[in-house]
Amino acid sequence: MPFVDIKVITGVFTPEEKQKMVEDVSEALIAIEGEALRPVTHVVVTETPSGAWAIGGQAMTAEDVQTKRAG
Questions:
Q1: Which terminus has fewer CB within 10 Å in the chain: N or C?
Q2: What is the pTM of this model?
Q3: What is the spatial distance between Cα 37 and Cα 1, in angstroms, rounded to a whole number?
Q4: Does domain 3-70 sit in CATH 3.30.70.330?
Q5: Contact 21, 6 (CB under 8 A)
């Protein structure tokens, strides 16, 4: 019974993008584990406040991530 927790910074992704993450990750798991486990496959998106997530000691904000997404 898989459980996947996708962690993102608050304010980076739209509700539609988060829903797509949940749907696509769920479908990828079900493709591997089999249709019988669909009812017990759990995928959630957990949001962390902007500035409360650090990479290499550098705090990341929603604006930092949006800048990276824009290229």
A1: C
A2: 0.88
A3: 7
A4: no
A5: yes
